[in-house]
Amino acid sequence: MKFLIDAHLPRQLVRWLHARGHDVVHTRDSPHGNRTGDSDINRRSIEEERIVITKDTDFVNSFVLRGQPHKLLLIATGNITNDDLMHLFTMYITDIEIAFTTNDYIEISRIAFIIHI
Fold first, then answer.
1. Are strands 105-108 and 113-116 parallel, antiparallel or unpaired?
2. Interatomic CA distance for residues 106 and 84, integer angstroms
3. pLDDT band at 101, cuts 50/70/90?
4. Residue 33: which region, alpha, beta or left (left: phi > 0; alpha: psi -120 to 50)?
5. What is the pLDDT of residue 72?
6. What is the Cα–Cα distance from 104 to 70, expressed in whole angstroms?
């Protein structure tokens, strides 16, 4: 799978997903770095068919209203340590991989894995 990780999430997640065989980029690697605008993130996700992983709920509105980004994984945990975030991905990665084969918007929190239809 191809992922685009938003600014609020650690580069550790890039390395972890890459080690699982995924094609992963972080906004820090974009020309504008962490100041890359949502519209640029949406455009890139559509052009490259990348799943945006973000904590930014503005992407939910964009997805629902305009179908952008290409696909969306919302991290709805509030403040979370990197270790706790990586633990959530370790728990849910197989579910995420399976769910995105047929779904476009998924949300994970500290206590739930939600597939939005």
1. antiparallel
2. 19
3. very high
4. left
5. 98
6. 8
Distance (Å, rounded) from C-alpha 49 to C-alpha 70?
A: 6
Give the pLDDT of residue 34.
77
The answer to whether 52 touches 45, Cβ cutoff 8 Å, is yes
C-alpha–C-alpha distance, residues 34 and 102, integer Å: 30
Whether 99 and 26 have beta carbons less than 8 Å apart is answered as no
- Measure CA of the first residue to CA of the last residue in the chain; give whole Å: 20
Q: Residue 42: what pLDDT?
A: 97
SS3 45: helix
For the entire predicted model, the pTM comes to 0.95
Where are the domains positioned within the chain?
A: 2-110
* Alpha-carbon span 62 to 69, nearest angstrom: 7
In the chain, alpha helices (H) = 11-19, 38-48, 58-66, 82-99
How many Cα atoms occupy the beta-carbon half-sphere of 106 within 13 Å? 22
